[in-house]
């Protein structure tokens, strides 16, 4: 290949438009109301499966050439109908996994959960890191790695990555140059939502957000919804 051909190829790559959709999984069956975190055995509810199918229908006309998910069951089950709709194999990327949390497997609340026990208070000393789980910076590093890998795999097309609420919100906050520590109630990352990163070449040029399954999401779980007593606790994401 001549030098001119190599330069033309490089210029072409720099102008490629690639869209990487970070999708949060659908609703999970969690009758005990625990923070399930990275625990195995938590699957989509019937409503969660409907959400996954709805997003698969929404993305069916799109130029999706790569689908990958967190190794956790709820993410794999959400991604499966999307991959099937495009005739693709489903890949797994451990970097898309839920954030670590010391309260995993426990109910989480002030009056009725782990927060009422003094032995757990030591985990709450630094909300900026945070002290109860995986550092925000570490989440940024692994999620940016997963985004970049998907961008390369689907260059010039679209990719769908199924992950979890906190890692999605943290990497979006990083890209949009917001502080990483935040009020969890204000995350814009509803069940089965799409946070979409558009790349020109290797550079992110815009971030979008949509909720294709919004009509299936219980009102108290929508982004920005006011909490309802007895409902809406973020037991897992």
UniProtKB/TrEMBL annotation:
SMART domains: PGAM. InterPro entries: His_Pase_superF_clade-1 (IPR013078), His_PPase_superfam (IPR029033), PGM_Phosphatase (IPR050275). GO terms for cellular component: cytoplasm. Coiled coil: none annotated. CDD domains: HP_PGM_like. One of its GO terms (molecular function) is phosphatase activity. This is Phosphoglycerate mutase. It comes from Streptomyces olivochromogenes.
